[in-house]
Amino acid sequence: MPIMHFTGTVYRNPYWPTFPLLEITQGCTHNKCKFCTMYRDVPFKMSPMKWIEEDLQEIASIAPNATTIQLLSANPLALSFEKLEPILVMINKYLPKMEYIYACTRVTDIRNKTVGELKKMRELGVKEISLGVESGDDTTLDRINKGYHASDIIEQCNKLHEAGIEFWMTFLNDTAGREHSRDHAINSAIIFSQCKPMLVGTGGLTLFPGTPLLEEAQRGEFTPLSEKEMLEELKLFVENLTCDCSFITHHTITGVNLTGANFMQRKDKIIAALDREIRHGDMDIYAAIRSRKSNL
Questions:
Q1: pLDDT digits (tens, 9 = 90+) for 189-227
Q2: Which of 4, 125, 149, 203 could make an S-S bridge to 101, C-beta 3.0–4.6 Å?
Q3: How many CB atoms lie within 10 A of CB 132?
Q4: Which helix (H) or strand (E) segment is 240 a member of?
Q5: Is the distance from CB of 44 to CB of 27 less than 8 angstroms?
């Protein structure tokens, strides 16, 4: 019986259709972010084309009318256009009704592609991607070793707009620690607003075992925010965000739903909800929920 070539733990965006999934790369090209261990022991490499084709044949036998597919692993669009194009063509060959090819990726993965190449990728189905930006503040980006700066984010997002590829951007609450929280929140909101993503997602930092950021916290070199301070930082980010996008939060808040479209129409309500949580939320419960998280 055929079996899909998933080589390790599968991480996928739960807000996109989660079937089918197609692994075309393994690991992460960067693999140096100080808060992440997801691919720490997985060298980056492209999956063999034979595997990719066999997996597409299996998907086609199960779901021949599939209209969406999510590419794996960490940042599959790091592949050059010359390597990506035949994969995208193959997807459309085996799944002729394909409409949307999704992928999470890094800002630096867009840098090695021209606008013309991005337009061709869109024509082949890559219409929506997620950028794990985390911050728009240069000091914070350097602090967590993201490998790019705010100017790079703006430049590559402009290319995506020109190519017609829609994109998500993520803000990682608390990556600056207490030392630089305000600048992280405000500068991130400014950069995100300039980039005009279709969706902004926010998440709260958890210091996982084995991460350099946890080790720095243990040495007193990084001061993580309390649950209340994280909410205050998130509120400051929201207050300064001005792009009319959809908004999703993965924060450990349980008492309020901040997720939905039309951010600017809902902005005042989101701020009010955050303010209520800051004043009345059970921070012990939120901390307990965070302590049970096993990955990003």
A1: 999 999 999 999 999 999 999 999 999 999 999 999 999
A2: 125
A3: 22
A4: helix 227-240
A5: yes
